[in-house]
Structures are given as structure tokens and as C-alpha cells.
Amino acid sequence: MDEIMRFPELQLDFVESRVLGCVLEKQTTTPDYYPLTLKAIEAACNQSSNRYPVTKLTSEEVEDAVKRLRKKELLMQIHISGSRVPKYEHQLPEILDLTSPERAVLTVLLLRSIQTPGELKQRTERMHPFESVSQIEEILTGFIEYPYGPLVKELPVGSGRRVKTYGHLLGGEKGFEADTRFETEPESEDDEPTDLETRVIALEEKLARICEQLGIEEE
């Protein structure tokens, strides 16, 4: 990981972290639909798989978070020829030059908050397959020892935790907090999307793309 600059004191809130994580994820998992429209970002934020907690953010909440991330220079609005609505892409490389494995780990931390290295290995599979948990731990150590300020914090064993867990620091200590409006029950171990869920997610993204091309507002 090459250091470009100190990550500014952005203090991302929960919704901003969710939006940024979704944009990072979709760039890798559905590149044909990237950059994303606001509608696609909303759908990504509220999908039931690969998220913790599951949310029901409104279009207004997502749009407001996008505006704040633009002011913080983490998202950029772009206009593509033939598209009737603007799209958005992340600007993280302007701040942190992350490798593909590093970006996958950070993305999952943004989407799911506190996790163990083993959970991160499982949940980064669609973005970057890791051969061992030790590879995840090496990346986490690099994030903790980032010379311009740690990007991740380790929570040691104790207080009900039997293994070490990690959370991102892009929002300070807020990176460990979920919005209390949403469910906080632990997910099951088998929380990866089923084939049907994957197809539904893909269809929702395809519908959003068709609607924006036709200039139609989705209901």
C-alpha cells in the first residue's frame, strides 16, 4: 500500500460508510453497472445480503449522504454520454492507493463493521479470493500501522469476544457503530447470497440501469 496522504479527519457517519462501501463493492462485483446512479446506490445500500445491519434507507437519506461524500471528495459525479441522469464513482485512489486485496478488506469492513479475520476471508471472496487468513491479518496489520494514522482498530479478546475483531476508523470510533434504527441481531453463519438472491440483485441493478437510460423514475 503506497501512502499518498494522511486520511483526513472525515468522520464518516454510518450512512456515508454504507454508501462508500457499496460504491467500492459494485465497482468490482458488477463493473458493467459502474459508475452508479443514485437509484443503484440506494438498492445496493438496502440489499439483504452482504450487509450488516440490513437497512431501509430512503432515497433522500442516500442522496444526502452522496452529497456529503462529494464535499469530502470521496465521491465524484460524472455525466456519461447517452445517460439522462448523473452517475457516481468513488475517489478513494486520490487519498489511499490500495491494492485489490486491501480494497476488498476495507470494503467489507465498511459494509459489515466489526469482524474477525476469518469472517473477512469468507466475505471478501467475491471481490478477491484469499488463500489464507494470515493474508487478511497481514493487510489488517498494514492498516493499523499506516504511517499517517491507523485505518483499522483491533479489538482484543474480552468483553464477550473470544477472538480478535477489527473495525475501520474512517469515521473515527463511529466506524464501530451501527445506526440504531436498524436491526442489530447477529447474522447467521450462512449469510452469503443464494443463487436466487444474486439473480434478484442483478435484476434490480439492470432495472435501475434501464430506467435511467429511458429517463424513467423507478417507483
Description:
With 219 residues, the protein is α+β, with helices and mostly antiparallel strands. The protein has one domain (2-214): Orthogonal Bundle (Arc Repressor Mutant, subunit A), CATH 1.10.10. Helix content is 41%, strand content 11%. The strands form three sheets. A two-stranded antiparallel sheet has the order 1-4. The longest helix is centred in the C-terminal third of the chain and has 20 residues, at 195-214.
State the gist of this model.
With 219 residues, this protein is of the alpha+beta class. Strands 1-4 form a two-stranded antiparallel sheet. A two-stranded antiparallel sheet has the order 2-3. The N terminus is likely disordered.
**Alpha plus pi helix count:** 7
Number of strands: 7
Oligomeric state as shown? single chain
**Annotated CATH homologous superfamily:** Winged helix-like DNA-binding domain superfamily/Winged helix DNA-binding domain
**End-to-end distance, in Å?**
42 Å
Overall number of domains: 1
Q: Biggest β-sheet: count, sense, barrel? A: 2 strands, antiparallel
Please write the CATH class name: Mainly Alpha
Please tell me the CATH architecture by its name: Orthogonal Bundle
Average of the residue pLDDT scores: 82
Helix fraction, binned, reads 40-55%
Radius of gyration: 17 Å
User: What is the ordering of alpha helices and beta strands?
Assistant: EHHHEEEHHHEEEH
What's the arrangement of strands in the largest beta sheet?
A: 1-4
Unreliable residue stretches: 2-6, 184-190
